[in-house]
């Protein structure tokens, strides 16, 4: 299968099939995609295996999805959580 | 259908146990939240990325200047020991992509796609990275060493272009070697430990280390002992780190700054005990102070019908985990252990204990904390709040949590648990998490909660 795109906050992001959303964003140079509640600090991948919950985002309207565990599908709309 | 055995975790321990039990004639289910077999050590890229291809030349191409890192990385051939573990799973029902969030006595295993029931249970849920806080550790670009490794192995993505690798333990070697071979510029490995001579007693392990050292030399990656990354800097992303020479207590002696866009940092591993603790399995302490599931020489836990294997019973690497799994499998089927397994396991266990001695975590990391350094990433608890709670009389981990709320957020203390306990001068208590994984309300509504979330 050849590559496809997902959309992050309006911007197309290339994906190699099988990659997680977090990996595709990170590879595209987007290393943070939400800010923390209290101090507004940027967060992206940290533990990489679903343990830390730093990487939460919203996928096709579903909030609080772990980007590091969720495999990207063609056309996924991704926004900050 | 009721299985004879449900194995949770498809790393080396779970795969070995499931394969052994299936060959002994049992009906076995193997469950893992990941979509691929292998766990951490044998993590495979998904088939769409070329995982599972047995190719002739597994070496990575070095990057040209204008090539993007991602284009260049190809899936390496799976290791032979992984293929052997996989091929022994004939007849085992695989439930991959199934996150287990609760286990009930008798044994109902609830995962996010349904419920499995079994006569017996084997828990092989492995470990996660152990991290300690330092100024700037929450900047994007700072990742755990295991996280950087998982990103590379599972997604063929390199964590950055200029990467520092820091922390303690033999695991830093494969992480740095893998990143360098995949085309990243690894600016250095900063290993806190200094004295490693004792490892010479294990020639096979030494040879493995020498292989990684040769890769590091080929890519001109310096390996520094007795050094640590003590701060990370950047506005919205990592731009540089402060590296320090440290003394035996890990206090910084002399510092310098190094530019990098990624840091892979890890101070060993913490066993994942949520499910065994839920079931009421007795815990004990490993030689590094970590809480682990207590098992006898058959890998039986204190709860009848429940075995545990691999790093939930003590961190010691993939070989030990696999041997644990074989022993557990034979214990469950009542079949005799092949010659040499027990002796090899004793040796691997002794090596694991030696690693804990050679690569300890010293409390000197606490000296780096500033008033505003975040200790708990989820609840954004700064070090000052911990100090304030201590001034109010919160002397132990439990009261620190109640007063300052570290460990009360999304990750339920998995990331800050070690640090908060050490700040209270204790070894981390075993976790109490009635729900091992976040789940939908629908699933939760169908589940009778037995305890409250007064996690200590
Ligand atoms: C992120 C990370 C990367 C690592 N990479 C390497 C490496 O490259 N080389 C190396 O030598 N060592 C590595 N290690 C060390 C590793 O812990 C051991 O080498 C070895 O994999 C341990 O084997 P195990 O079978 O005990 O557990 P693991 O291999 O960790 O397997 C445990 C499995 O259980 C699954 N699991 C956990 N909880 C649940 C649940 N609630 N529901 C369903 N499934 C669950 C996990 O998805 C995982 O697949 C890594 C560790 C970590 C944390
Ligand atoms: S990076 Fe830690 S949960 Fe996704």
Query: At the first level of CATH, what is the class of chain A?
Result: Alpha Beta
Number of domains of chain A: 1
Global Rg of chain A: 12 Å
What would you call the structural class of chain A? mainly beta
How much of the sequence of chain B is in beta strands?
15-25%
Amino-to-carboxy terminus distance of chain B: 37 Å
CATH homologous superfamily annotation of the largest domain in chain B = FAD/NAD(P)-binding domain
Q: Could you give the count of β-strands of chain A?
A: 7
Main sheet specs of chain B:
7 strands, mixed
Low-confidence stretches of chain A are: none
Q: Helix- and strand-based class of chain B? A: alpha/beta
CATH architecture of the largest domain in chain B: 3-Layer(bba) Sandwich
Number of helices of chain A: 1
Spatial arrangement of strands, main beta sheet of chain A: 2-1-7-5-6
How many domains of chain B, as an integer?
Answer: 3
User: Oligomeric status of the shown chains?
Assistant: heterodimer
């Amino acid at each position: 299968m050849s590559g496809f795109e997902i959309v992050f906050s309006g911007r197309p992001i290339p994906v190699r099939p099988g990659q997680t959303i977090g990996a595709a964003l990170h590879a595209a140079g987007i290393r943070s995609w939400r800010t923390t509640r209290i101090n507004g600090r940027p967060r992206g991948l940290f533990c990489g295996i679903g343990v830390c919950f730093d990487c939460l985002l919203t996928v096709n309207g579903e909030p609080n999805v772990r980007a590091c565990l969720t495999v990207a599908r063609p056309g996924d709309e991704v926004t900050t959580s | 259908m009721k299985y004879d055995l449900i194995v949770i975790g498809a790393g080396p321990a779970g795969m070995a146990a499931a394969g052994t039990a299936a060959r002994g004639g049992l009906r076995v289910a193997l469950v893992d939240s990941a979509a691929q077999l292998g766990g951490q050590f044998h993590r495979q890229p998904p088939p769409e990325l070329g995982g599972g291809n047995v190719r002739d030349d597994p070496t990575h191409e070095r990057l040209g200047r204008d090539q993007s890192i991602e284009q260049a990385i190809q899936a390496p051939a799976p290791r032979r020991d992984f293929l052997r573990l996989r091929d022994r799973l004939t007849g085992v029902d695989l439930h991959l992509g199934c996150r287990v969030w609760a286990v009930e006595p008798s044994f109902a295993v609830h995962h996010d796609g349904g419920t499995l029931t079994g006569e017996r249970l084997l828990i092989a849920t492995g470990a996660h990275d152990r991290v300690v806080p330092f100024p700037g550790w929450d900047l994007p670009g700072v990742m755990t060493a295991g996280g950087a490794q998982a990103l590379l192995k599972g997604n063929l993505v390199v964590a950055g272009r200029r990467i520092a690798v820091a922390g303690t333990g033999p695991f830093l070697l494969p992480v740095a070697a893998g990143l360098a071979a995949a085309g990243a510029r690894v600016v250095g490995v900063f290993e806190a430990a200094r004295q490693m001579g004792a490892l010479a007693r294990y020639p096979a392990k030494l040879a493995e280390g020498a292989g990684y050292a040769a890769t590091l030399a080929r890519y001109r990656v310096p390996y520094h002992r007795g050094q640590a990354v003590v701060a990370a800097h950047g506005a919205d992303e990592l731009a540089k780190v402060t590296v320090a020479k440290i003394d035996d207590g890990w206090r910084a002696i002399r510092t310098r700054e190094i530019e990098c866009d990624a840091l892979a940092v890890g101070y060993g591993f913490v066993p994942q005990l949520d499910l065994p603790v839920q079931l009421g399995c007795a815990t004990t302490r490993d030689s590094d102070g970590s809480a682990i599931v207590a098992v006898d020489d058959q890998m039986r836990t204190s709860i009848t019908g429940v075995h545990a294997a691999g790093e939930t019973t003590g961190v010691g690497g993939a070989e030990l985990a696999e041997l644990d799994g074989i022993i557990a499998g034979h214990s469950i089927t009542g079949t005799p252990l092949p010659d040499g397994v027990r002796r090899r396991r004793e040796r691997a266990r002794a090596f694991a204990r030696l690693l804990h001695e050679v690569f300890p975590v010293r409390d000197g990391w606490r000296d780096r904390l500033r008033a505003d350094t975040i200790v708990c990433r989820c609840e954004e608890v700064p070090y000052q709040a911990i100090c304030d709670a201590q001034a109010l009389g919160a002397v132990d981990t439990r009261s620190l949590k109640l007063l300052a709320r570290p460990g009360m957020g999304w990750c339920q203390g998995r990331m800050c648990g070690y640090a908060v306990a050490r700040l209270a001068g204790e070894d981390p208590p075993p976790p109490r998490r009635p729900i091992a994984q976040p789940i939908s309300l629908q699933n939760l509504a169908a589940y009778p909660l037995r305890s409250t979330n007064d996690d200590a």
